[in-house]
Amino acid sequence: MRVVVTGGSGFIGSHVVRACRDAGHVVRSLDVRATDPADAVDVRDGDTLAGLLPGVDAVVHLAAKVGLEQSFADAPEYVSHNDGGTAAVLAAAARAGVGRVVLASSMVVYGEGMSSCARHGLVRPGPRRPADLDSGRFDPRCPTCGSTLSPALVGEDVPSEPRNVYAATKVMQEHLLAAWARQTGASGAAMRFHNVYGPGAPRDNPYSGVASIFLSAVLAGRAPRVTEDGGQRRDLVHVRDVARACVAALDPAAPAAAGTVRAYNVASGRPRTVLELATALATLGGGPAPVVTGTARLGDVRHITASAARARDQLGWTACEDFGDGLAELFAQETLGAPS
After folding, report:
1. Which residues contact 230 (CB under 8 A, 6 or more apart)?
2. What count of other Cβ atoms lies within 10 Å of the Cβ of residue 231?
3. Which of helix, strand or coil describes residue 205?
4. Contacts 24+ apart (CB under 8 A), 199-208
5. What's 72's DSSP letter?
6. I want to staple 117 with a disulfide (CB 3.0 to 4.6 A). Which of 65, 142, 144, 314 is the partner?
7. Which of 110-114, 120-124, 144-148 has the lowest mean pLDDT?
8. Residue 330, pLDDT score
9. CA atoms within 13 A on the CB side of 23
10. Do 331 and 338 contact (CB within 8 A), yes or no?
11. CA dist., res. 5 & res. 31, Å (int)
């Protein structure tokens, strides 16, 4: 297949480009930061895109403004890059007759995800209350009886509930992809990435995840600072596994009928606590143990863990990178400068 990868110079994009080529696809990487001027494209530039997509079989659309906005004043820029950029890519794909688009979505579309109540079963937790956080009660309460909830795995059919501007733009990207598929008769996949880690992860960007934030502290000889009680659960998935998932979703035989889009959780399926991650990195660095601060930020999500069964059953994909080996590789490359 002839494949275009937008955002191909980025952390995830560079691995996707490599995985596509390893799978035998002919790949062109487009990125506003590309060293080749011919490939240095802002995806919002629809006129330029229109000349680059004819003859292309599929697009992996990764280009986006990432990170969590600092205030609502950042909303126009996020919407411009993420939603305006996606609209421009899809419009160009429609004109060029591209048959499949694989979109980088995110776990953030789920908000707090799903939890389990001993009395009421699976429930959707509401926002946590400031009084609970101030008193050290970090787990969300059942919206019906008020009892403490336990985390549960989120499936792709759970309705979206974005909690910030960035999350709202990811939901809109999925809607735009669905509208494109319906109107063109093409098909798409919305890949809901969970906490991605691995070689090349940017340490100056909060969205690169707690792994990169903790690693920065460890490399500086500081104790990683863990908010709340450290019991927050996350699903950390290696970037090479993410790249393989994107390649699997390119398969024309993937189960998305013409005119439809299928969402997939891209997750390891093995959730870990934030304190567990911080402790593993501190141990690798031989530095001080993590400090648990007991503090909480109102907008943070307590638990977000997912079922990756759909990707396994429909794409034949499962995460296979070992967590301990992945952290050791990441630490070694940061300290020794080994190639990724």
Report:
1. 273, 274, 275, 276, 278, 290, 292
2. 16
3. coil
4. 199/239, 199/329, 199/330, 199/333, 199/340, 200/11, 200/14, 200/15, 200/239, 200/340, 201/11, 201/239, 201/330, 202/11, 205/66, 205/67, 206/67, 206/68, 207/66, 207/67, 207/68, 207/166, 208/11
5. G
6. 142
7. 110-114
8. 86
9. 20
10. no
11. 8
Residue 209 to residue 107: CA distance in whole angstroms: 12
Cα(77)–Cα(67) distance, rounded to whole angstroms? 12
3-state secondary structure of 209: coil
**Cα–Cα distance between 18 and 179 in angstroms, integer?**
30
**Mean per-residue pLDDT, 21-26:** 98
Whether pLDDT at 208 is above 80: no
Q: Helix, strand or coil for residue 170? A: helix
Return d(Cα 266, Cα 243) in angstroms, integer.
10
Cβ atoms of 239 and 196 closer than 8 Å = yes
Query: Would you state the pLDDT for residue 298?
Result: 74
Q: Which residues are paired to 28 by β-bridges?
A: 4
Backbone phi and psi for residue 16, each to the nearest 5 degrees, phi listed first: -65, -45
| CA dihedral of residues 106, 107, 108, 109 (deg, nearest 10) | 80
As given in the structure block, the two tokens for residue 42 are 């802002």
The pairing of beta strand 114-117 with beta strand 150-154: antiparallel
Q: What is the mean pLDDT of residues 149-153?
A: 91
Packing angle, helices 239-250 and 11-22, rounded to 10 = 50
DSSP state of 294: -
pTM: 0.93
Q: Which amino acid is at 188?
A: G
Query: How far separated are the first and last CA of the chain, in Å rounded?
Result: 25
pLDDT score, position 338:
46
Question: At which residue do the structure tokens 């399926």 appear?
Answer: 269
